[in-house]
Amino acid sequence: MTLSPYWLRDNCPCADCRDPRTGQKLFQITDLSADLTINHSSECDGMLVVEWSDGHASRYPATFLTGGSDGDGRTEQGKQLWVAADFADGLPEADWSAYLAEPVAVLDAVRRFGFALLRSVPTVERQVLAVAGTFGYVRETNYGELFDVRVEADPNNLAFTNVAIAPHTDNPYRDPVPTLQLLHCLRNEAEGGDSGLVDGFRAAALLRAEHPVDFAVLTGTPVPFVFRDRDTELRADRPLIEVDALGRIREVRFNNRSTGTLRGGDVEAFYRAYRRFAEITLRPELRLEFRLGPGDCLIFDNTRLLHSRTAFEQDGVRHLQGCYADLDSLASTLAVLERRVAALDTLAGLFAGEGAGEYLGEAVTMAEHMLQCGALAEAAGAPDHLVAAALLHDVGHFGGAGLELMAGRDNRHSHTGADRLAQWFGPEVTEPIRLHVAAKRYLCTVEPEYRALLSEASEFTLQVQGGPMTDQEAAGFAALAGAADAVAVRRWDDRAKDADAVTPGFEHFRPLLGRLIGR
């Protein structure tokens, strides 16, 4: 593989090049030598080691060179384009309470399909704002932070009447257009007024396949989208179909009510393409129809899906409340949640795998010991962070390090474990873990009777780990900010070796750990 020196050097992960807390670069590309070259490269312990002509040295995980990228997730790549029949077995949906407990599936549906439906959302005014708050922030527009979709006496938009609305994008005259829309049904007692969705990316892909010349016209023609009322005048000139630099569909803006007068260019070609695209969006097989009932809240991608409704009786009561939000906030929330799930799955795998092995000559396995320790902390009413520290305090033994300790070599598992867990947890969890071995040495000095309670294996490891502290060392330890928490973990650690104890499994602690990850 031929490596670009500037690409490789620009991505050096060391602490001199990137802030270890934020991951942000600490140098400019112009800081690098104009004739930068690689002096030498080699592989060592699964790392690519590069020595540079400017004297710098970089280490890259082997996976760095093979890792790919799906981009920012906003284009057709990675989406699941659909037709109505794809949801014959049901819509992507969840009950409100289930969503609050575990939101990943719903948010992922919005990312993949462009929409999801929440059921049994409390039918109270402004509740739609609370739904948006579960994954991001409300995007306020000229309609306010929320808007009421119902028949108005003096409407400034046809949406606030009882007429049928064809598949369309909301607010195409804004730049940027609101990327997410939420519609929460409070009442729907009208005859008609059914909702519809069309996958605009699928419609655009069909146009590209069937009429590539028309597709090129629509991606290359800026269209004036306009909105005016007494207090507002908005305009954005954007193509109906927007593609990225690689030609992938990224955004659809389609709204006949807001399309202004196109002037200049090949108008005939545009209207031929415009009509063909409109005809595709009206194909029955593309239109997914359903009825929103009280408590239903629809979340959808306004830059991808076109939404519609059928006409309804003028005197029928139909009241939705809506708001806009940003897709990047939803994507951010989902990414953090997925990281959390991956972290918890990794920890669960350690408990189920290596955790089933011997624990330093004790009568319990490593997992049993750690679970007992967490349970003792929980029973004592310890705060979440301390329960987590007790539960995870011996993670540093995994990977065979425990055998090294029993062979008479200090594996510094307290530090190893704390460093490993720092990718997920803050110092309130990791520091008691880092100090829990030192706490044993401390207690042996300040409480002579404590040492007599140590098991035979624990007495052995005490000697390997440095033995009791000196009085000076003990005073220094006691002054540390995390000393008290470390001592608490240590006391539970010493008691958590009962072969007959009944303790909960890892899944019991999973919600608690989930609340702490990424804080």
Automatic annotation (TrEMBL):
GO terms assigned for molecular function: 2-oxoglutarate-dependent dioxygenase activity; metal ion binding
What residue stretches are annotated with the TauD/TfdA-like domain?
A: 90-324
Q: Where is the HD domain?
A: 367-436
What CDD domains does the annotation carry?
CAS_like, HDc
- GO BP annotations, alphabetical order: carnitine biosynthetic process
Gamma-butyrobetaine hydroxylase-like N-terminal domain sequence ranges: 3-65
Q: Matching InterPro entries, A to Z? A: AlphaKG_dependent_hydroxylases, GBBH-like_N, GBBH-like_N_sf, HD/PDEase_dom, HD_domain, TauD-like_sf, TauD/TfdA-like
Q: Does the keyword Magnesium apply?
A: no
Q: Which cofactor does it need?
A: Fe(2+)
UniProt keyword rRNA processing, yes or no: no
Q: Tell me the keywords, alphabetical order.
A: Dioxygenase, Iron, Metal-binding, Oxidoreductase
Family of this protein: Belongs to the gamma-BBH/TMLD family.
Task: Identify this protein by name.
Answer: Gamma-butyrobetaine dioxygenase
Q: Which organism is it from?
A: Kitasatospora sp. CMC57
